[in-house]
Each structure stands twice: as C-alpha cells, then as structure tokens.
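In response to reviewer comment 3 from the previous cycle, which asked for concrete evidence that the modeling workflow produces usable outputs, we include below a single protein chain processed end to end. The sequence was submitted unchanged, and the resulting structure tokens are shown without manual editing.
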Amino acid sequence: MRIAVIGLGDIATKAYLPLLTRMPNLEFIFCTRNPEKLAAVAGEYRIAETCRDYRELLKINIDGVMIHTSSETHAAIATFFMEQGTPVFVDKPATLNFADYQKLHDLSEQKSVPLFVGFNRRYIPLWNTLMGRADLRTFTWHKHRLNLTGKAQDFIFDDMIHVIDSLNIHGNIDQQDIQVVCQKAGDEIAMINLSWEENGILFNGQMNRQFGKTCESVSLAFENEAYQFNGFLKGEKFENGVTQTVELPDWIDTLETKGFKAMLEDWVSAVESGRINEKAKQRNLSTHAFCEWLLGAC
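The workflow returned the following structure tokens.
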C-alpha cells in the first residue's frame, strides 16, 4: 500500500512517522513545500519518492493520503484528493467551521471514498475498554494548559475539540441540554466548562488555559466503582473501599499509549476496505457541529 504524507512539520515527524514507518507492507511518498525539510526527513526515513506540490501526487500511483498541513489548508487538499477517489486521513480539526466539514462529509459520501479524521484519543488503550460499558454513570475529561489564553476559534477548534470529541462517545451531543461556562481574559478565552446529561450519563468537560500546569485528566464512575487517570500510562481504580493501580506494561511505546498506533491501524483498514464505520462518520459530524455551536455560545 502506497501512502502519501503531505506536510512534514512537528505533528507528522513526532506523532506519525515514527509509527507509520514501522508498520508492515506500507510504502511512503513524502510531500512538503520546504525543500530542506523534505530532504532531511526523507533522508532520515530513507524515502526515495518525494515531491513539493501535492498535486504532483496524481501522476504516481497512491492508495491514500495523510494531510498534516495547517488546519486552514485541510479542506482544499482533502477535497482535491477525494474528488479523485483517493482515501484521505486528515488531522483534527478537519476544517475550521462546520459548513466546510459538511461539504467534505457529503463529498466522501458522494464519491464513496473514506474521510478519516485523526482523533487519537478515541483509541487510548489504558481506558478504552471502559468506554463501552452500559453502566457508566459519570464521565469527566479535563485538559489544561499554562498561561495560554486564545481566540475563541483557535481555543475551541484547534484544542478543546480533543475534550469535546472524547466525551462525544455517542456521537449525538444535544446542544439544547448543555450548560456552558466561558471565562475570558480580555478578548481571549481563558476557560470553558461544559456539562450535560445524556442517556443517563453525566458528562463534564473543561479546558482551562490559565491552569498551574499543562495536564490532562480523565475520570469514569460506575456503580460503586470508579477510575481516575492523570495521564495515559497509569491510573487508579476504586472499588469496595480498595484502591488498585491500573497501568500499561512499561515497554509500550509512548505514541501507542496516546492512541496513535491503534488509530493508524484503523486508518490502514479503512484504505484497504474503502469504508469507514458509520458511527465514526456521525461522531465526526457531531463533534465539528458542536464546536461551531460552542463558538457562538462563547
């Protein structure tokens, strides 16, 4: 399978290439406008085929493309390849507004070509098995940063979208029932807190960008059983008054603990089959639609 990687910045080189280039039966073509970066990264991974204009990729045989460019370019590049029937992986956010995402979704459906959005937190192995339990009662996800207030669109679409999508496990958040608290610092957003009840589950999400440190925490509660995670490597289980440590084996790669390995395996399967799970499609739509709504609410 031949995969083109478009954009070789920090996201691609730190989060994707170390895993992709170890996956079997894949060949890569690297593409970026920066000739120095292209030569350096292609040399590091011994990639022979490269180009500086993504449109040149149509001249060669590729099975799929991965888009790791700036968010504002995602829609145009994804549209270009889906119109040619080429499966597309795009970093979150796929677009910076819901109208553009709806167009991509509709094009994907029209052409019957996969549109895969890179939400790695859907695949966190430490707690992924807990997400499907029918007895879940409360689900809390907080993601904070230190001294990094921002404009509403960047805050929500580029960062808090992680929290929103991670809580959007049913793919159908109803905006009518959401309680929103938005704190500002001047004309920038400092903190957003969300809470709602859905299918008998109480959800809470928060991003505070004036927190004392950069951190992320997840908690899930069931009947007389609860879990608290302050990272992707280990956490605690509370049951019958007893605390137990929950942790992954220490040999697991950091990128695997953050969900990237399972996500990329899912992406490769989507290219092979030419299909994406319907629930994932609905979740992608719902998450981007909710981000647009939240932008107006703040």
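The mean pLDDT is 95. We consider this sufficient to address the reviewer's concern, and the full set will be provided in the supplementary archive.
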